[in-house]
Prior knowledge:
Elements: H1 21-30, H2 65-80
Amino acid sequence: MGSIIELNEWIPIYLGKSRNIEKRIYEHIFIDLHRNTFALKLNCRENMHDKNFRLSVLKIETANYDWVVPKLERYFRDKLNPLIGKQ
């Protein structure tokens, strides 16, 4: 039998670049499991109800959001290697 590994550090699950953070976080938590969207749908997953999550937000105010933010997301995706999300 394999042994259970205890993780003592946080694990990045997801990175995103939505302009409307409040709406996107709401979707990741509360959207229905059967909705056709790329959301975590955490409230629908009973095995996640007892888990603790940490949210970090990087506020970026720039006129060039659509150019800057995808590059930052790619940098953080390569650095943090989140478990899920579009690559």
